[in-house]
Every structure is written in C-alpha cells, then in structure tokens.
Amino acid sequence: MAELKVGSSIKIEYGDEAKIIGELGSGAQGIVYLVEYKGKKYALKWYFYDKLREPNAFRTNIRNNIEDKSPSDKFLWPQYLTEGQQNGSFGYLMDLIPSNYVGLTDILNTYKIEQIKGTNQVKKVPVKFTSLEAVVNAAINIVIAFRELHRDGKSYQDLNDGGFYIDVQTGDLLVCDCDNIAPEGDNYGIAGMPGYMAPEVVRGIAKPDVQTDKYSLAVVLFKLLFRHDPLEGAKVLKSVCLHEAADLKHYGKEAVFIYDPEDTSNRPVKGVHDNVINLWRVYPEYIRDAFIRSFTTGIKNPNHRIIENEWQKLFVRLRSDIIHCECGRVRFSNAYVNKDGMYICPSCSNKFLSIKFDDIDIPVFAGQKLYRCFTAKGNDDFNTVTAIIMENKKHKGVMGIKNNTQDTWKCTLPNGEIKEVEPGKTRALGKGMTIDFGKSIIAKL
C-alpha cells in the first residue's frame, strides 16, 4: 500500500473527492489521515491492504454497516467508503474526535502526549476525571453503547482501551475503530488484544462474538474503575516476559481473577499493583461482587457473563451512591457509617437520610438527583432527572424533594397525613415519610 501524499485526493463512492490535509496517526491496520470532503473535515482510515485477511468481504461489511447506520450516537461510525481500489488500497471516512475527548489509554496512563506549539518537542499533559460522577457516567455510557450494538445483532470483536474516547469532565463517550464490527457469527480475521480477549478466544476454541464482547466489556469496565488488569497478579508477575505461551496460560487455560474468593494464587502484589489494591476497597460490595462473578464463573461459562442491562442498573445505582458532604468529603456510601437507616459522615458526623426503593437506597443531600429509571415503572431512562433534592434556604439542613415531572406525587407523613407534590413544587423530607410516585412506585425514608 502506498501512503497518501498531503495535497493529493482520493475518490469517494457516489461522487466527489476527499483532499488529504495531513496524517493523524497510524496503527496495525492502517493510517488515519485528516481530509476535507464536501467542505467538511473528516478522518480517513486508509488500510494496509496486505494486512486484511479477506479484503473484499471486509470492505463489503463496512459498506453494509454504513447502510445500516450507527446503533447509537456514541459510535464514530463509518460514513463514506472510498471508490474501488486506489493507490493499492481503500478506506472510509468518519467524523473527527472532538478536542475535549481523551483516549481511555491516556486516562489509564494518567497523561497524554502533546506537541509543544511551534516546535518539534512534546510534553506530558496530566489526564484525569474531574469527579466520581464523570467516572461512573463513562461506565454507564460504555455499557449503553454496547447494549445498543448487541441489540442490533452485531458484535465489536476487538474491545480494548484504544477504542474509547471520553470527556473527563462529564463522562460522555465516543467509540471509535468501528470497522471490525460485524453481524453475529461473522468474523474477518480480528481476534482482539491480549488482556482483553475472552479466554476461549485466547485458547483458539471460539471466535469473537457477542458473548466474548461481554467478557471484554467487563475488562474495559474493570480497568476504568480499578486502573488494572483483572488477571494480572502474583502468578502473572512471576512470568516476567509475557510471550505467547504465557498469554495462553494466564489469560486462557489457567486464567485466575486477582480477587477470586476461592483461589488466592494470583492476588495483586503490594508495591507493584497498588492502584487496584487501594481502589478495590473504595467501591461498594455490589460492584466488587459483579466483577467477581464476571471473572470467575464468567471466565468458565460465557452464558454466566453479566449482560449490559445488569451493568447499567449497577452503575446507575453506583452514581446515586455518591455522597457529597458539606465538609468536602465525596465518597461512595459504603465509606460512611450506616446507623438507624441514616448515613453518618466519619469526618464531621453530618447525617444523611436515604430514600429507600425496593432495590436501591439513595442518600439525601443537596443536589442529589433521582432519574426516571427510579421513579417510573419498567423504565431504564438513566438520563432524565425526575427529582432534585433541595436544601431549604431559610432552614439549613432541612432537605426537600422537587418534582421535575408532569405527574403529582403523594407524600404520607409519619402521622398518616397525605400531602401532594405537584409538578415543579418541593416538599420537605423527614424520617418515616413515604413517597408515592405513581404506578406502584413507592419509596420510604
């Protein structure tokens, strides 16, 4: 494959040409160029033709994906194919990644490399999430994106940290490298990246599909939260050099989760794996249990892997489990003392009520939000805010719930008196109260 020259043009299917402006980067499959097409700038992924196992079938699959459209706005989906075979290869156009998005690889490294303006020198720029909410939002967005993809009957097949770009301020997500996405049952030669591949793919007894995606998704989520490989502990450390045989052993035939409750042989090593040691105890037990299941029974039996809907419920719960205390402490609720149905800050002894639904407790503090998935029956909308906790401006420490919906709620006080909460109105909260959100959704304080 001949590299494309700046200033040259490539014909696009169905008309016009894309002008090459510059190179954006390169990888195992090809080079990505900055181009202009019909007055708009795009990224052009241009393939190393000899690296493609079935180039004609691969190209047809990309065309089919373009025609099918993206399953979600979270994907940087192929937009246009180049015409025929030019300069010994072909490629496709996709939208550019906005400047406020950072690669998950850089987030895991805690820095990104930037060129110093006006020079050929580079510098390290620190990268980190600005809040716990942004971390959890990123997890939610990753899960939702892959839920939509799998609902379309397609699998990504090569999940790894290089495929995700995240806004560290908000947790908004873009999934790139979408050219290997294929209908369930199809595969065009890609297997995945070591450390992310499901054990059955590493062992060569299965090809990438939706079930192997679910394993790789759990790895991505684990690394996002715990900044570590879920299978890299004492056993792997002893290998020193991870060659193909070692990969087959530690990530395939003898894969052991670092926090497997029944096998302690691969525990993280203090002084080497400090990130995961420190972060493991930060997250609530229900999150730890989900990853234990993913990397124990989920390693052995693909049918036991956690599905996207369950991950979504867990992370929406986790987002609502973050308590902001007025003393400045921001932690998950498991870091607070739970006594008599209230959370107590260990730093300042401030007390927090909780709104108790059937399957989730939500701490009450100024600014806390309730989402439609909590207050509406059978709803999985985790974005629409249906209630906000407000502090009384005249009486410090007195919290109220503001109704952000078009429905009227009913609050029953401890003495049995019923008060309505009309749309846009706020009602003071107190211990022993119940809130009827309608359609059998009732919460207690």
Structural commentary:
The chain has 445 residues and is α+β, with helices and mostly antiparallel strands. The chain has three domains: 9-96, 2-Layer Sandwich (Phosphorylase Kinase, domain 1); 104-312, Transferase(Phosphotransferase) domain 1 (Transferase(Phosphotransferase), domain 1), CATH 1.10.510; 353-444, Tumour Suppressor Smad4 (Sandwich), CATH 2.60.200.20. The chain is 25% helix and 24% strand. The chain has helices spanning 55-68, 104-109, 132-151, 199-202, 210-226, 234-237, 244-253, 274-280, 285-294, 297-300, 308-320, 372-375, and strands at residues 9-11, 17-26, 30-37, 40-47, 80-81, 91-94, 102-103, 111-115, 122-126, 154-155, 164-166, 173-175, 182-183, 322-324, 330-332, 337-339, 342-344, 351-352, 354-356, 361-363, 369-371, 385-391, 399-403, 409-412, 418-421, 426-428, 434-436, 442-444. Strands 1-2-3-4-6-5 form a six-stranded antiparallel β-sheet, with helices on one face. Helix 3 packs antiparallel against helix 5 and helix 3 packs antiparallel against helix 11 (308-320). Pfam families: Pkinase. Residues 18-316 form the Protein kinase domain. It comes from Intestinibacter bartlettii CAG:1329. This is Protein kinase domain-containing protein.
Number of strands: 28
Count of structural domains:
3
Helical content stands at 25-40%
Radius of gyration from CA coordinates: 25 Å
Strand order of the largest sheet: 1-2-3-4-6-5
SSE-based structural type: alpha+beta
β-sheet strand percentage = 15-25%
Count of DSSP helices?
12
